[in-house]
Amino acid sequence: xxxxxxxxxxxxxxxxxxxxxxxxxxxxxxxxxxxxxxxxxxxxxxxxxxxxxxxxxxxxxxxxxxxxxxxxxxxxxxxxxxxxxxxxxxxxxxxxxxxxxxxxxxxxxxxxxxxxxxxxxxxxxxxxxxxxxxxxxxxxxxxxxxxxxxxxxxxxxxxxxxxxxxxxxxxxxxxxxxxxxxxxxxxxxxxxxxxxxxxxxxxxxxxxxxxxxxxxxxxxxxxxxxxxxxxxxxxxxxxxxxxxxxxxxxxxxxxxxxxxxxxxxxxxxxxxxxxxxxxxxxxxxxxxxxxxxxxxxxxxxxxxxxxxxxxxxxxxxxxxxxxxxxxxxxxxxxxxxxxxxxxxxxxxxxxxxxxxxxxxxxxxxxxxxxxxxxxxxxxxxxxxxxxxxxxxxxxxxxxxxxxxxxxxxxx
Length: 411
Ligand code: FES
Ligand SMILES: [Fe+2]
Prior knowledge:
The chain starts with 15 loop residues before the first helix and ends in a 9-residue tail after the last helix. The protein has 10 helices and 18 strands. It has helices at about 15-25, 40-45, 45-55, 145-155, 185-190, 215-220, 285, 330-335, 340-370, 385-400, and strands at about 60-65, 75-80, 85-90, 95-100, 115, 120, 130, 135, 160-165, 165-170, 200, 205-210, 240-245, 255-260, 290-295, 300-305, 310-315, 320-330. A hairpin with a 6-residue loop joins strand 6 (about 120) and strand 7. The protein has 2 domains: about 15-60 and about 195-400, Naphthalene 1,2-dioxygenase Alpha Subunit, Chain A, domain 1; about 65-165, Rieske Iron-sulfur Protein, CATH 2.102.10.10. The structure holds FE2/S2 (inorganic) cluster and fe (ii) ion. The site of FE2/S2 (inorganic) cluster has 10 residues, from loops.
């Protein structure tokens, strides 16, 4: 197969609303001691969402899932990233590729939600592709086009991908700088979880979450709310035990925080205890904390002693996201006779926190749509929110600069 495809969206003319919002970003620049939240319309405006598709999702590494969910040759899953249908496939050479899921004949989508296949046959007119995207059959086309020529021109486009710690990322414009060098500190922090070697349960998909994609990362990454919204059930991971890191422009792929537990092997369920045995290489110190990390823009993970839970955030509109939620743990843990029960307990446990966050996210999104929506200063425990905005504003300005707006951002 030839090199990956470069398929950025067409440049857009910035609408007055977007230009006006870009003008207001200055007050959100800086750290927690001085910055304000973004203008509320950055969460609610359809025009701003279109801008973000180009400024962020078109140009960055965007998470799709984890290799642990497709361990065998022919395993695949489909996913739509800001409307782009993709097939994430483990090929015959054991390489994971991100292919277009759009048939090269007339555009029917290929593949089921997930499965194992020897190739993909389009149900519409029977064109077939192998696991690497090569066209292998195109019935009844010989009368107009020889197969040899079709095969040259009608293979599935392969998007550029990178795998970090087992997580599979795609880059549409083909020009993003490599991701791993921008995740140095986080990679070190999570090294002993050995995430690339873990098994992933089949992710579950939750659609129609009525809040903005940025708010998903914000909620997950700030510990201010945990003492209030999750009062009682979060006490084993108190917000007073949070460790933040300082912003580093050269290592800005992720925004994260650690929270020390009140006891070893804490877990996010009503008992506050990990249900599976701890992952084998973790130190006692690592078993006594959780690392919450947002690999920007759309992967959130929580790494605790026995499992790593992860959310792939799939923006649908300014106020609508789909979430794919997965759990990673060791293959040994998954082969325990009680694995199904332990997994159910783990997922149900996280769901308790999730329900509270969901309610808060929906109600906050509504509030941000108000004509008198707030633009706030942060508490010290919202340090990560200023960091999220630092990450975002850099991308917003960099894209706007390519359109001749914000020329100073090129500095
Ligand atoms: S659209 Fe796929 S074979 Fe016709
Ligand atoms: Fe929460």
